Amino acid sequence: xxxxxxxxxxxxxxxxxxxxxxxxxxxxxxxxxxxxxxxxxxxxxxxxxxxxxxxxxxxxxxxxxxxxxxxxxxxxxxxxxxxxxxxxxxxxxxxxxxxxxxxxxxxxxxxxxxxxxxxxxxxxxxxxxxxxxxxxxxxxxxxxxxxxxxxxxxxxxxxxxxxxxxxxxxxxxxxxxxxxxxxxxxxxxxxxxxxxxxxxxxxxxxxxxxxxxxxxxxxxxxxxxxxxxxxxxxxxxxxxxxxxxxxxxxxxxxxx
Length: 256
Hints:
The structure is a single chain. The chain is an alpha/beta fold. It has 2 domains: 5-62, no CATH class; 69-186 and 203-255, Rossmann fold (3-Layer(aba) Sandwich). Helices cover 30% and strands 26% of the residues. A 7-stranded mixed beta sheet has the order 8-7-6-9-10-12-11, with helices on both faces. Helix 1 (69-77) packs parallel to helix 3 (108-115) and helix 6 (161-171) runs parallel beside helix 8 (209-218). The relative contact order is 0.13.
């Protein structure tokens, strides 16, 4: 099923570049013709791009915040390089690897890796999710608490990862390629369920996830790290060199 979205523009705001192909709605009554809509809203004095959709007869919303909330907690209390994601990426003192996150999503793992000192290039194939993520990056790059993290060495690209991995590696081969393809979560909590349902609504299916691994292995300098639910099979049915398990997730590590 193809879902149709719109950009709600009650005050003549300019749509982000990756959303400019969407129809524009100025009258809120016309939103009923769409499965979801993007709009700018005021959050704590900031103008934030958000996506709205009705789930279970309730209007819910999603946006990207790289300054506060869950990302801030992980930045302040995450445990530094003792974290599983840091160990999986082989992070060591005085080494700031160049990481290509080829499945950017809402940017939380990329933000965590940036906080640990990595330089990030991020790929997101969905123009909808990419627009939300770029909005979050832009706001974080101007915020005094996070400016040093996100105003440089944190760059987002929109497109198909299978194509862009090779293109970006030609300009600068990444030390690490990080993959976290979509997989149905077992966590049934209301918050996770609603957020994942909204992301799934925006992204759609992910039928070519297995094809990412061989492309990544061909275009990385040191290792590919794949984040999977503990119950999920290996990506592309390819056994890693090693795995690190955390609560609910597993990091499969393919060393070059």
